Amino acid sequence: MVFQTVALQKNNKQVIELNKSFFYISFLLCALCSWAQDSIKTVNLDSVSVSAKRIELQQNAPSGDKLSRKQLEIINTQNAGDAAKFLGGVMVKDYGGLGGVKTVSVRGLSSNHTSVSYDGINIFDNQSGQIDLSKYSLSSVNSLSLANAGFNSFIPTASSLASSSSVNIETKKPDMGSRQLKGDAALSYGSFNMFNGNLFLATKVSNKDILTLLTDMTNTNGRYSYKIYYGANQQLSTQTKKRENNDLFSYHGEANWFHSFSAKQNLKTKVYYYYSNRGLPSNVNLYYQNSKQRLWNNNFFAQTDFSSYINDRLTYKNKLKFDWNYTRYNDPYYLGAPEGQNDEYKQNLVYMNNAVRYLIRYNFSATLTNDVSFSSLNSTILDDKPARLSSLTALVLDYKLKDFTFSANAVHSFFNDNYQNANKTRNYLSPFISIRWDKENFSSTLFYKNIFRMPTFNELYYRRMGDSNLKPEKTNQLSWANVLTIENPQYTIQPEIDLYYNNVKDKIVAIPKTNIFLWTMLNYGRADIYGIDLKINSAFRIAYTQLTLKLNYSYQKSVDMDKQSPTYKQDLPYMPENIGSAVLGADYMQYHFGYTCLYVGDRYSLQENIPQNLLKSYFDHSAWVSYDLNFKNKRIENLNLMFSVANIFNKQYEVIRAYPMMGRNFNFKIQLKF
Q1: d(CA 585, CA 562)
Q2: Percentage of the chain with pLDDT > 90?
Q3: What one-character DSSP code corresponds to residue 236?
Q4: 86, 354, 442, 539: which sits with the fewest CB atoms below 10 Å from its CB?
């Protein structure tokens, strides 16, 4: 057994070194390509500064929120998980800080209720159902959007309509103009030996083809300081320690090919790869810091998105995707086996969407969209290989009458699970209806939505955490959203107020056990969630200074309403009543400034609402300043130097009980655009 353990460790080191080498080689090759001579002679005109007089309307859906590229730059985070904290009504569950998994909970519903799409095609994970947003770099992202009622997509997928809410990560398609090559490169270094490098390149292969390449890498030891409190009520004495086994190495690369067959037919192809190797730090309840648990993840997917505008009335879309995901979890100190615990999970998925939209009249359209997917999971801890065939079909009707827009859809969900020679089939029909009123600069939307969520493979079949008797969740949503836009040449202000109520039957709640990888799955007979989202998006121009301000506040109450439950009428775990955020950016000539503030209120870590289970509220303040160096070099647009500080007041807080987050930390970044 000892020789096997040593061999595994050697193999892991080889894999890490191989991935690091792959990153450095690809980074160097892309950099060399960026300086290649263009074969076409171009004429460079002097640049002209253009100042925007109004902000882009942030609302992308009848009820939701959106972070534009400008706002993402102000937030100044490296991944979509940290940026999503500033979407209205969103609670990001951060399992471990620097290398931790980051999933979103929207309006008190679990992350399994929120679908995540990458350039319009859903990201799937039937193993856990929870999409880790920390895997998705923001270096090439154009916007991050949230929709509670369904995106105002021209032709939606059935999977997005079948979810309670949807998050869409939209990458940028560069406007090449007459240029053959564009790109930017960035390097940053900061506290806890945190290094990040990324490179984005776009090349115009022909008048009909654009190719983009992106690569980025993150490496950190994660050894930040935190305090342990001893004694009655943890008030007698303190001790400062370093977080151990919290290191992270991750690499991500992707390529996008944009092809135009004609003005009415377009194809986008994406190839994506992600690798990570991270330590899983132990909780600090028992002051034990000798955790050696590790988690490896490899993810590859390829997807295509084809659209054809057949005529003025008929439009067709097709989306295809293949996804392979590998996860390995290792605990050499696991007491249940002499050689430790070593679990491997391999997931394969094939997905296809076909959709047709027909314009019946100028103000009336019908869309039929169908998603078919097949996924399987192979694991060392399962007695069999579970497989799931699913088919989602939706009929969508949109009708506009003067100032009113009526929308309705019905989603039929079909699931067939095959496990241990047994087949389980479920069918469900989910209706949706909305009425929207638009009058000048004001809009009001009222919608009702019904959702059916299947339990995941983890929730059903895993020996250490699953429960094959779990029931599917059924959710009724009711929401009323109101948006007002006030604008003139000097400013734009867009306040929004959303009222909502969610009723969940057989709600599935995950409670962490001994570490952040193992959980306990529970059904609550019924849960009621109600709340209000307040949002303000605004931009001001004062003399030569452009200001951008985004404010969010959410109040939500998530209550166990199962009369048979011992925690009847008590708050559900990890559901704070109050969440707030602020994003402020200022641009003055070549100087730029950004500030963010995040507030999360009190919440309970377990079902019983007692003082011992209470997690205290916290504020997290961050700020940065940067300066642009402009060059007369025809190949270089500018060089930006940035210094940032996060958690300015060094506040120690916990998102998950006994997993302290990092305190004050610094970062220096240099970015070159060419």
Answers
A1: 45
A2: 55
A3: S
A4: 442
**How many other β-carbons are positioned within 10 Å of the β-carbon of residue 504?**
28
> Tokens 């909305």 belong to which residue?
434
The token duo for 150 is: 């369904």
350 close to 373: Cβ distance less than 8 angstroms: yes
Q: Is the pLDDT of residue 204 over 90?
A: yes
Name residue, tokens 């707030």.
Answer: 580
Structural domains counted in the chain: 1
Structural domain that includes position 67: 2-34+53-673
In 3D space, the residue among 148, 122, 114, 112 whose CA is nearest the CA of residue 353 turns out to be 122
Residue pLDDT, tens place only, 456-510 = 887 777 655 555 667 788 899 999 999 999 998 889 999 999 999 999 988 776 6
Beta bridge partners of 27: none
- Residue 333 pLDDT grade (very low, low, confident, very high; cuts 50, 70, 90): confident
| CA distances to 296, 324, 327, 350, 530 from 346, in Å | 12, 7, 7, 14, 38
129 vs 9, more confident = 129
Taking the C-alpha atoms of residue 549 and residue 480, their distance in angstroms, rounded to an integer, is 24
Q: How do residues 334-357 score in pLDDT, each as one tens digit?
A: 776 677 888 899 999 999 999 999
CATH at 122:
2.40.170.20
> pTM for this structure?
0.85
Q: What is the dihedral of CA 100, 105, 108, 113, to 10 degrees?
A: -130
Q: What is the pLDDT of residues 68-92, one digit of tens each?
A: 999 999 999 988 999 999 999 999 8
* Sequence-separated (6 or more) residues with CB below 8 Å from residue 499: 479, 480, 481, 531, 532
Contact 661, 655 (CB under 8 A): yes
Residue 361 within a domain: yes
- Identify the H or E element spanning 338: none
For residue 69, give the DSSP letter: H
Q: Looking at the domain assignment, is residue 43 inside a domain? A: no
